[in-house]
Design goal:
By secondary structure, this protein is an alpha+beta fold. The protein has 22 helices and eight strands. Helix 7 packs across helix 8.
Length: 458
């Protein structure tokens, strides 16, 4: 068989995403904080873009009202004296260096501080430091005393003695090797002398979690009501004593749109803070009109101008798409805005996409990570999209609304005779919501509400 090379022409149609289209999709999917970071990055990379003067003026606070009266400052300067007390506060006691805290101490730093205040010899000091450094973020000691003794080449009893010292530190329960030991330490710290509490912690903690109060009462020899009281007391203790020193990751939600009710109408107000108005710098416009068209600088500016215009257009298109989606949500969920979560209606992404004439994936990108501030609170746009069941009306009722009905029914039940899932299903049927017992159980578990056997009180 002869092999060779040849050329031939072929026509075909392909769907190709241009860089501009990719940028528009990316911007639409951005959250408010991601969009803000992206705009700052583009302003740094593209010299022809700048924030409009109106937005810049809105973000700049006037300084006229904050002028310093230097004459008064000079007159009062002689009142400041370099004494031992001057390092802590001035004449008016309005400043104190001791009140300046750069960051909260971690659990290990807090324990090491207490260890340094404890009068110990060198050996116990080293054992204490080793124990503290091995305590996890929840306040537990995950390694055994035998391992510590072997690593430090010391006696096991010395490690046990030092561990008891550490377990007396704050927070109460720190240094425990199990949940049982953690709860027992906290009981000893507060001076509890009821031996039944220690017995329940040691032997019947699993039965207590399963709400088997009659079984525990029979084995311990006390009444079921006393077991209930012990359970209520143990719930006041801290199962993870170290988490109060854990680093907190605060995430602030900035709504992309605000819905306000004026009279009988709802108005949608875009949050311009998330997308500042971008403009083209006038000096570069002038440079482009004056220079020769073949100049390399002009070619560079043309590319930057095109990039800037596509960025501005994509941001504007993003806001228009979000506005259309929110406007349709407000129209279809008006009962929710009037009466609350119980009146949320089933709604799908495809339903909104068909109404505003875009693809379903566009609505998904426009609602992902976007938030709406409403008279009922701040919600993610995804919150309004959920499946539902029939309630006798044409629209039906959303699953989120059903969960609120279930929560209200459980809140009003008799704690001594909690309602079963089957009984809750019958209660819902009485108000026109027909769902099965298994669906009730699924929604109840989604809300982290225990079963009736674990909700019962004696």
């Amino acid at each position: 068989m002869e092999m060779g090379y040849n050329l031939h022409l072929e026509q075909s149609q392909k769907l190709v995403m241009t860089p501009q289209l990719r940028q528009a999709i990316k911007i639409l999917q951005f959250t408010s904080l991601e969009l803000e970071e992206y705009i700052e990055q583009q302003i740094e990379n593209n010299p022809v873009i700048e924030i409009s003067e109106e937005d810049r003026a809105a973000k700049t606070e006037p300084v006229e009202d904050n002028k310093v009266d230097w004459k008064e400052y000079a007159e009062d300067f002689d009142n400041y004296e370099y004494c031992k007390d001057a390092y802590h506060h001035n004449k008016d006691r309005d400043f104190n260096y001791e009140n300046i805290i750069f960051k909260d101490p971690t659990l290990r730093e807090h324990l090491m501080f207490q260890l340094q205040l404890t009068n110990l010899d060198q050996t116990y000091q080293e054992i204490g430091e080793y124990i503290v450094q091995n305590i996890d973020d929840n306040g537990y000691l995950p390694i055994s005393v035998e391992e510590i003794a072997e690593d430090l080449d010391v006696d096991v009893q010395d490690v046990e003695n030092m561990l008891k010292v550490v377990q007396n530190f704050e927070p109460a329960g720190v240094g425990a090797r199990s949940l049982k030991e953690c709860l027992a330490i906290q009981c000893r710290v507060i001076g509890l002398r009821d031996e039944n509490v220690y017995l329940v912690i040691e032997k019947y903690l699993d039965d207590l979690a399963d709400n088997k109060y009659p079984v525990i009462a029979k084995k311990v020899g006390i009444t079921t009501s006393q077991v209930q009281d012990i359970c209520d007391f143990l719930k006041t203790l801290e199962p993870k004593p170290g988490r109060m020193y854990a680093e907190t990751d605060n995430r602030y939600v900035v709504p992309d749109v605000v819905v306000r009710k004026v009279g009988n109408e709802y108005y949608i107000i875009p949050n311009d803070r998330n997308a500042p108005r971008l403009t083209i710098r006038k000096d570069y416009k002038q440079m482009l009109s004056n220079e020769n068209q073949n100049n390399d600088a002009v070619k560079f500016l043309n590319d930057k101008f095109n990039s800037a215009m596509w960025l501005i257009k994509s941001i504007e298109q993003r806001m228009q798409t979000i506005y259309k989606v929110v406007d349709m949500i407000v129209k279809k969920q008006r009962c929710f805005f009037e009466y609350g979560k119980k009146h949320l209606k089933p709604m799908t992404l495809k339903e909104i996409a068909d109404e505003i004439g875009v693809h379903e994936s566009t609505v998904s990108r426009a609602t992902n990570g976007k938030y709406m501030e409403t008279p009922m609170g701040t919600f993610e746009l995804k919150f309004f999209f959920s499946s539902g069941v029939s309630d006798g009306s044409a629209e039906g009722i959303a699953s989120e609304s059903i969960k609120n009905y279930i929560r209200d029914i459980i809140d009003e039940e008799n704690a001594r005779k909690p309602l079963s899932d089957d009984r809750i299903a019958r209660e819902l049927a009485g108000i026109g919501i027909t769902i099965s017992r298994r669906t009730v159980a699924k929604y109840r578990e989604d809300m982290k509400i225990p079963a009736s056997s674990k909700r019962k009180r004696y």
